[in-house]
Design goal:
Number of domains: 3
Number of helices: 11
Distance between the termini: 30 Å
Shape: flat
CATH superfamily of the largest domain: Phosphate transport system protein phou homolog 2, domain 2
Strand order of the largest sheet: 5-6-8-7
CATH class of the largest domain: Mainly Alpha
Amino acid sequence: MAWSTPSRERRVLKAGHSSIAVTLPKPWAEAMNLRPGDLIVFDQNDDGTLYLKPAPLPGAVPPGAPYLIQARSFTTPGILERLVVGAYRVGHDAIEIRTELPLSPERVEELQESARGLIGVTVVAQEPNRILLQNFIDPSKYGLPQLVQRMKMILIAFLEESEELVGRKTRSRRLGGLEEESNKVLALLVRQLFLASRDWSLARRIGSPDPRQLLEWRVVVHALEQIAELFAEVAQELNREPAASLENADDIRRLLQELKAGLKGVIESLMRPSLGAACDCYAESRQLSDAARGAALRLKGAARRSGVLPALLALQRGASCLTLLAAVALDRAVAQGSETVLVTAP
């Protein structure tokens, strides 16, 4: 569903005895969730233009203020990392950690690893009881379509690495790097969605001209998160027990190749909606899920007791997530309303 651009012209109206007023475009007011009686703030630029935005809610953190994580101490591994990642994903640029007791070397290393695992984040201040992390990226430089394309390349790399593992006896050394890159891009995708939901102009600049499309983008990102986890699981299982000697190695390799082609097709139909292509992708992804399930059922003997069985089951679930993405591509194509498709009856 396209969102028509409101007229750029507004007539100045008389308001009271000595004031004048201009109405706000309804789509913008709805996107900003404005209601009668709400406050807006404005800044006047040197050229006379005005910049409008909704006034911050009472108690809201001022823009630019660090998100503060404070406790007497942090001893449980992983808690600090998840807090930092969460603060980054919801859009905070500065993240400050304060403790009453000095941070242990292990927790300091955990924070530094967290910063290295997030695009644009670095440690800018470090004291025994305080660490400040700062994000330096410009969100307008990272479009949603470009990040989705980057995720596609990472997912393809997972499948290609799994395909190589089926045909060799040595273990992979790339999986750690692929998982790290996947987590970085996914965290940035989620961050972009949070920021765009609060800034309509940013949403338009990064590829979502209609703010209502952000919910659709969230479905896409969630499906990509699940697919990344499942494809990583596939590679990990095959890496644990390389399958070069399996009798059904050719079937597994063929399934991986078909999934790779299906992934490329689904992402293409998401970025360039076409009803016919979306229908084909939807049907093919469902067939891939059935094929993975059938391959798992055909496993026998030692192969069934190896890591190949959980790998095939993960591939089946990954194909199901691909079907979800294909369904979104179908929705996008239907929303365009510019073509019809003939579906052959069974």
